[in-house]
Fold:
Amino acid sequence: MKDVSFGQYYPVKSFVHRLDPRLKLLFLIVFIAAIFVADNFWSLGLCALVLILAVAFSRVPVGKVLRAVRGVIVLVVFTAAINVLFYTGKSEPLWAWWIFSVTREGIVFSVFLVARLVLLVTCSSMLTYTTTPVALTDGVESLLTPLKWIKFPVHVLALIMSIALRFIPILMDETERIKNAQKARGADFESGSLFKRVKAIVPVLIPLLLSAFRRADELGDAMDARCYMGDKKRTKYKKLVFTWRDLVAFLIGALMLAATILLRIYGADLFGVLLGPVI
Amino acid sequence: MRIVAEHLSYTYNPKSPFETKALDDVSLTIEEGEFFGILGHTGSGKSTFVQHLNGLLRLPSSMKRYREKRKKEGECKTVLRVGDFDLASKKTDFRALRRSVGMVFQYPEYQLFAETVKDDVAFGLKNFSDKKLSADEIGRAVRDALAAVGLDYGEVANKSPFDLSGGQKRRAAIAGVIVTKPEVLILDEPAAGLDPLGKRELMELLHRLHKSWCKTVVIVSHDMDEIAENCTMSAVFAEGRVVFSLPPKELFKRHEELERLGLDIPLTAKLCRALGARGVNVDCDFTVEGFVRAVLALKEKGGRA
Amino acid sequence: MYAIEFKDVAFSYGEGGFRIPKLDLAVKEGEFVAVLGHNGSGKSTLARLANGILEAERGSITVFGTPLDEKHLYEVRKQVGVVFQNPDNQTVASIVEDDVAFGAENVGAPREEIARRIDFALSAVGMSEYRHATVSRLSGGQKQRVAIAGVLALKPKIMILDESTAMLDPRGRKEIVDVVLRLNREEKMTVILITHFVEEALLADRAIVMNRGEIVMRGTPAEIFARHEELTTYNLALPRIAVIAQRLSEGGMSVKSTLEIEKLADEIAGELSCGS
Structure:
């Protein structure tokens, strides 16, 4: 009964949702590359602008996007603190104590790192917010197709991903059911020492594994019965098609990456010391 | 233990795109000593309801924030009591509750996990006991529980539960629940997946347990014949609400309303209806026994007239 | 030529395991056969032998004249579709149409052909509007209909349902039975239905009863359900309606054993009115 919404897909229709999953995967790679190429705030600002556009056109609520950042807030704060305290700049420290010293460059540098991290996390979660796991699988398979030339089992990998996606909600449901059944027999998963809690998992884990094997067995038979014989002769029904939307997104991505590269090469001359390269 | 629910509501995945209202203002009383049948389509809320009865699903009203909000609005009226346990209170001792309210899930044989049947049956016993039980005490309780479900201790106790036959596994799983002698035993579709003979044997087993072991038995079922044949009282769920709470004898007279809900009626009720259309009124309790008796009585009377 | 024919087939799951000593069965094209038997009587083994998931130790299985052997395995599998018990364990893809496509993709059908087969299969089971739905959100009956569609996409001539209704609620069961009946009547599909439910078995042209790996009873469903003592020997329960008829006749009423509600009502009403 309980509905397990798998992953964090946000089900609305939008420009971004309708982009080809391969394009979105590539775009994520380009975006990450751009963030790492960027060495000044102007470039990062550009990336941020593109991301804000993407969020705006995705119809995913801003709160939801920010929640993804909240998940890594500890990491962000930690990174910032370490860098502020340990960055040894050339200028006079603003404040120093024992082995710590705070310099102006240190502060600028950590702000830069934090911005990078936030952009990285937001962009990745935008991919999962706007692309169903199924579409992602299709995209990965399609992008990996060239690897077939070096005998990499792309098809098997894709089938495994597809079956995993299909069975994860079932097994999550099942875990819940078994857990409830053992709770009804007095099992306690919430209290006690770590050792006790690990031990408490056994009555859930064993039935779960047995069930997974039983399911695998029946699935195997069902696949056999439907003439599954591996990659041999197999055709594919779903074809991914690029549309004008993908072209637009592609151009934006390409421009963004080009701009960050150019700014890295010529940025120092353009903006001077303060707003020039941070790294 | 008397079970009383008033104005009980429950929503899965609240405030998400997958929000579903599973219970909508449900009020239902189950008296002590009943063999109670709960009917309804899949998704009608019957499983959600029974999972409340041993605290596997909690009342939102026992959550602090919800209570405070409700108190302000002055309408905290949900009641859920099982015997002396007030499930709307946050002080409920859920461990004690679960000890008194045994719950057998669908396909319970899939929860077996221990190395031996004995260990598996003893699992609940050890969990619920406050002191360490001696091997003797455990052995005795397991022996009793296995005997109650019709399994021979000597034959199965030291076997792996996975080496039992299908029907035996289900019995062993039920033994693992009744081993703590719960006052109320709830079973979610206990006969699902069994062959007809297995079904009949299982219902016979539940009757034995009802008389000797657990005061109240509650079964969730799709099978109208099963309800008609076995239950002293029944309730019908539809779309998260209780639409009927009647003894089967009364319930199955309402065949038109049941069919409007898309529910089947027992064979005996179909026969009564078919006979009614032929001008013969058979008044019976809708068990096979009762139907045959009523028809033979009619013949007797007719013969004399 | 039979749709499927088992001739002197033997099988065992290894030493001391379950055994089928000798099996002979011939099913005509377009026939609807119900297979009954208690749990563990060998019904599922029969289904798995029929499309080569299990391999017979002896004897021959032929499908429309083609022998089921290594060389013709896939040819036969295309003709014999099997639907299994658990609606959750038969789908490989998360989206309905992707799953239905699976079989057709496996045999290398071209894209347009696959699309046509998906259309056909989904409409045959009445699930066209769920084409893009997520499988895990469907009801049990709907999932099982998708499983049937997945088999239909291979264009089989024989459909075996191995207790495919056992895990469904009454509504889901009716959905499946309706689909199967329609396939049998309108598409001339040969159907082998393995079931515990008397009402389902009654729909068949012919029924067989299995016990310990052997076929022990053959006949029309009505004939078989009339042989009360034999049924009991093979650990099968009598249909409730037969029990009622029997009890009434034991009580001195002259009602014949019948499996139809209306007929039994006629007999009872007749008996009561002539008594007065």
Remarks:
- Chain B has 13 helices and ten strands.
